[in-house]
Amino acid sequence: MRAAVVHEIGQDKLEVLDDVEAVGFGPGKVKIRVRATGLCHSDVSAMNGVLPQPAPFIPGHEGAGEILEVGDGVQGLAAGDRVLMCWLPACRICPACKRGQTQLCLAGFMNAGTPNFRRPGGDVFGFAGTGTFTEEVVVDAGCAVPIPDDVPFDIAALIGCGVTTGLGAAINTAQVEAGSSVAVIGCGGVGISAIQGAKLRGAAQIVAVDPVESRREAALRFGATEAVAPDGLADAKQRITAGEGFDYVFEVVGKSATARTAYETTRRGGTLCIVGAGAMDDNLQLNMFELFFDEKRILPSMYGGGDVLRSYERAIALWRAGRIDLAGLITHRVPLAGINDALDQMRSGEALRTCIEL
Length: 358
Fold this sequence. Notes:
Blueprint: E1 3-5, E2 15-17, E3 21-22, E4 29-38, H1 41-47, E5 57-58, E6 62-70, E7 82-85, H2 95-98, H3 107-110, E8 117-119, E9 122-126, E10 136-140, E11 144-146, H4 153-159, H5 162-173, E12 181-185, H6 189-200, E13 205-209, H7 213-221, E14 226-228, H8 233-241, E15 246-251, H9 256-265, E16 266-274, H10 288-294, E17 297-300, H11 308-320, E18 330-335, H12 339-348, E19 353-357
Parallel strand pairs: 5-9, 12-13, 12-15, 13-14, 15-16, 16-17, 18-19
Antiparallel strand pairs: 1-2, 3-8, 4-6, 4-10, 4-19, 6-7, 7-11, 8-9
C-alpha cells in the first residue's frame, strides 16, 4: 500500500512509497482504511525533531476513515463503521483518567514506541501511535471513535485534533468569560478554532495576531473582531485595553518568544493559555517577582484540556447547529502524492488546513 514516509529526523520532504504494510493487527486492534487526513503542525514538528518521535515513521494523526477489520475482544465496533482517529485514547483506569483528566492519560503515548508499519527494509513507526498519511493503518480499538453518517470524513479528521485542541483551549481550559477581551497569537487551524471557541463563549473583543495576511483575513471571517501583524499587537493592547492587557491570551505557536510576548500582553490577574506544542530545550523565562506580583494564570492546554470524546460530540453538535465553521478551515486539498505541496502550504502560512484525500 502507499504511505508517506520520513526516513530520518530532520528530513524536510516526505517520500511516498508503495511498499508499506500495516502490521500489528490482532486482539484489541482495528484496521482502518483512511479516507481523509489533515496536515497538522505537530506532524512537521515531529519531522524536524521538535517533538520526540522514533524514525523511520509515517506522519499524520488527524484522520478519519472506515474500519476494515476488528480484532478479537473489540466491542462496539464493526467492519464498515465510519470513524475518526483519536491519537490520545484514554485507558479509563490510570490515575489521570480516574481524576477526570483523560487528556493527560499516558497510555496512548506508549503506542508511539511500537511500530505499526513495515517495509522490506524493516519496521516503520506511526506518528503518535497512528500515522495517517497512508491508505491503511492498524491502531488500538480505543483510537477508533465512531462518527455519525452525516459527518464527512474531512470534517471528522479536523475534529480528531486541531478543532478539538483549539475549541477546548477556549472552552475547557481558559473558560473564557462573556464580555472579555481575547488575543490569539498564531492563526492557523488551531488558532482559528480557538477564536471560534472564544466567540462561542461570548468574548467582546478577539484580536487575531499572525504575520501572514491571508490568515489575518481568515481570522476575521471566523469571529475575530480585528486582526494585526505581530508588530501591531502592542498598539492593539493600548487601544483596546488602555494598556492594561487582555483578559485572555492564547499562544498557539509553541515558541518561548511568543509565549513571553503573550505573557506581557496578558493583564495582571488575567489568563495566559499555552496551546502550541514546543521543543523540550526551548525555555520560557519568567522571574519570581512577576510571577508573584502579576498573579497571571498560566494554563497549558493539552488536546483541548478535557475529555476528548465529549469534546468530539460537542464539536459535531456545534457544527450541525451552524455555530462553528469547519469546512471553511480546509483551504487546500491534495492527494497523497501531493503531500509535499501540503507541507509547503503549511510552512508558508498559505493554508489554514490542507486535507489529504485518499
